[in-house]
Amino acid sequence: MSECSALVGVDEVGRGCLAGPVVASAVSLTFDFFKRRKRREVCLEIRDSKQIAPDRREALVKFIREWQELGLLSFAIAEGSIAESERLNILGANTLAMQRALSVILPRGGNWESPGAPRILVDGKPVKRLGYPHEAIVKGDDTSLVIAMASVLAKVYRDRLMVDADKAFPAYGFSDNKGYGTIRHREALLERGPCQLHRPSFLQKILDEPASKLQTELPF
Questions:
Q1: d(Cα 189, Cα 146) in Å, to the nearest integer?
Q2: Residue 100: Cβ-neighbour burial (10 angstroms; 0-12, 13-18, 19+)
Q3: What is the domain extent for residue 141?
Q4: pLDDT digits (tens, 9 = 90+) for 149-172
Q5: CB 55 within 8 A of CB 38
Q6: Do 183 and 136 lie in a common domain?
Q7: 92 within a domain of the structure (yes/no)
């Protein structure tokens, strides 16, 4: 760790949703970040975004943005569109979102094999065709601070997108389900059909299933 210039964490949200883009965030953390006790205390709360209450996630994002303004870290957030998930499948769109976020905070044409190169950490399994050498950490969003920061940033950004989408398409409950396959969401799909924010390749099984099978939530 002492040989690299910075730690970079990458995470995504929305891969298992029925609607909306997949969103990835990349965070680059300098070692000066840990010099103040107050920052270390706040960081104890930063973990897998799904384990943090929504209002607290919003507050933590404010801290992260303040730290960026102080030059203690940098971050970027990027999307993989619905059209890209249909054309490339969701893993391809996810990879694009990660690449886009990384390209903002990392220098172009960097020598990634040099001793001082940033150390890139990705949640879960290695990402094929990411284009950057990286280490994959299972449950990294709950064990690595820099991945957890990326998780929180991506989650808050995507949740805001889906809350805005709810205003245009209120029948689907996007403000509550954020695009995931809840019972209400699937009922609306059967009653009204999909809207332009839905991922067609994710819907065929749901649209073909009888209403009697809607009584359990999908395992996303």
A1: 37
A2: middle
A3: 7-159
A4: 999 999 999 999 999 999 999 999
A5: no
A6: no
A7: yes
Residue 16 vs residues 180, 182, 220: alpha-carbon distances, Å: 7, 12, 6
| pLDDT tens digits, one per residue of 50-80 | 899 999 999 999 999 999 999 999 999 999 9
Measured distance CA(150)–CA(8) in Å, rounded: 9
Closest CA to 102 of 182, 1, 180, 26: 26
Task: Name the average pLDDT for the chain.
Answer: 90
Q: 176: which 2 tokens?
A: 């509550």
Indicate the burial class of 54 (C-beta count within 10 angstroms; 0-12, 13-18, 19 or more). exposed
Tokens representing 68 are 């960026």
What would the DSSP string read from start to end of 70-123? TTSEEEEEEEE-HHHHHHHHHHHHHHHHHHHHHHHHS-TT--TTSTTSPEEEEE
Task: Indicate if 14 and 74 belong to the same structural domain.
Answer: yes
Domain shared by 45 and 96, yes or no: yes
Q: In the sheet where 7-13 sits, what is the strand order?
A: 73-80, 22-29, 7-13, 119-123, 135-137
Q: Choose among 158, 116, 121, 152: nearest CA to 136.
A: 121
β-strand partners of 96: none
Please report, for the domain that includes residue 87, its CATH number.
3.30.420.10
Q: Give the chain's length.
A: 220
Question: How many folded domains does the chain comprise?
Answer: 2
Q: Whose CA is closest to 34, among 65, 1, 72?
A: 72
